[in-house]
Amino acid sequence: MDLPNGQPRHLGITLPIALSYPTPREIEVTDLLVQELIAQGTFESEEESRRREVVLGKLDKLVKEVVYKISREKEKLPEPDAREAGGKIFTFGSYRLGVHGAGTDIDTLCVVPRHVSRENFFLVMHETLSKLGDVNELTSVTDAYVPVIKMKFQGIAIDLVFARLNLPQVPDDLELRENSLLKSLDETCIRSINGSRVTDEILRLVPSIPAFRTSLRCIKLWAK
User: Rounded CA gap, 200 and 196, in Å?
Assistant: First the structure.
């Protein structure tokens, strides 16, 4: 895409290395690179991928149940209001970027409405998780820079952080892109929510997500 003055439009702050299309040889070595990434175990199996999706679905349902319980028992909201309070799970980090490998954890953000306090959420969520046979290695770190609940849910490592939005309800179609959602939040909630917001912004800004993911997998493998 060109600018009005005829100059090509570039994304980012540096110029691209090249503007030409890849040669057959470059496509070939890229395919070889992906094969090596697979051989090095940087991709997970389809079975593990499906298991992660199932676990996230169960966790999202569990969050809604915890929000309902807090709404009714601790905030004394009427039944209809408690049922509509909602709650939603977002992912961020390597899982959301699509560059996670086998056995890696899932960075997860739980977003709840304004009447659910951090103290009540961590207390009730920890109690609820501790009663589930699918959950082990459960730990709550409430005094961390970003408070987190760590666990293994059906063998999948989960790091769950918390953010309370200034909303009466958290619907399933909520998106976190709008800056207005940050108004009236404390610093801890802003730190918690920024992980998901930044990850999504990266995916919106990169020109080619497949090329970005391949490059990032290479960098992660090299760094190890």
Answer: 6
Model confidence pLDDT, tens digit, residues 91-145: 999 999 999 988 899 999 999 999 999 999 999 999 999 999 999 999 999 988 9
Do the beta carbons of residue 118 and residue 164 sit within 8 Å?
yes
Task: Map tokens 């609940």 to a residue.
Answer: 149
pTM: 0.86
Q: Which of 73, 8, 36 is nearest to 217 (CA)?
A: 36
From start to end of the chain, where are the E strands? 88-92, 106-112, 135-141, 148-153, 156-164
Tokens at 162, concatenated? 């918390």
Beta strands 156-164 and 148-153, pairing class: antiparallel
Q: Looking at residue 137, what DSSP letter applies? A: E
Other residues' Cβ atoms within 10 Å of the Cβ of residue 158:
24
pLDDT tens, position by position, 25-70: 999 999 999 999 999 989 999 999 999 999 999 999 999 999 999 9
The maximal CA–CA distance of the chain, rounded, in angstroms, is: 67
Q: Would you tell me how many other CB atoms lie within 10 Å of the CB of residue 178?
A: 10
- The burial of 96, by beta-carbon neighbours within 10 Å (0-12 exposed, 13-18 middle, 19 or more buried), is given as buried
